[in-house]
Amino acid sequence: MGSDQTTAAQVAAPATAPATAAPATWCPSGEARAPESVVLGVRSGSDGQVVYLADPVPASGVLGTLPEGIEPTRVLRFASHCVSACANRRGDDCSLVERVLTLPSAAADTRAVPRCHLRARCQWWQQSGVAACHRCPAVTTATFREDELATLVADPSTTPEQLAAWIAASA
User: Fold this and answer.
1) What is the CA angle 170-86-35, rounded to 5?
2) Global pTM?
3) Do 115 and 8 contact (CB within 8 A), yes or no?
4) Alpha helices for the chain (secondary structure H)
């Protein structure tokens, strides 16, 4: 394994998780304003890929520092606890990661996964492993009407088959 590759056992849980609480599963596309929410990373560069923070930063300490009119999810990715009421929840699984994995990968899936402080408790990692980690930096929490594909991926009613058909029709 390369030095940038990490297994779930090698990564500590986010620092904001109480030591005495039962392990929570975390969503890497979480709610910014959830009480436990942390900043997972910053959208950066012309491609808007997420660059992960080395250590979690409580979202509550960051939200008030953004300029007025800037939607936090436009520039930051947040992680929060997975909740049973989530529109993307299907039993114990996340249907969002299934839709994300339907998308073609921009790079070879043999590259090292990005370092991530969330991995040990990440729902996507637990559900889909390294394939989810390869796609995770491209996920944006904010979707915009002009990006039809991102809107489809974000919609919990979209099936992976519908995404594959849209991608095939657009090719």
Assistant:
1) 120
2) 0.71
3) no
4) 60-63, 72-75, 95-102, 123-128, 130-135, 148-154, 160-170
Nearest-angstrom CA–CA distance, 3 and 79: 24
- Angle, in degrees to the nearest 10, between helices 160-170 and 95-102: 20
Phi, psi at 6, each rounded to 5°: -140, 140
| pLDDT tens digits, 56-66 | 899 999 998 98
Q: How far apart are CA 42 and CA 45, in angstroms?
A: 10
Average pLDDT over residues 155-164: 76
- Smallest CA-to-CA distance from 163 within 88, 93, 103, 87 is with 103
Euclidean distance between CA atoms 161 and 76, whole angstroms: 29
Within 8 A by CB and 6+ apart from 11, the residues are 116, 117, 118, 119, 120
Q: What is the pLDDT of residues 90-136, one digit of tens each?
A: 998 999 999 888 887 765 555 678 888 899 999 999 999 998 988 88
**Greatest CA span in the chain, whole angstroms?**
50
Mean pLDDT, the chain, integer? 78
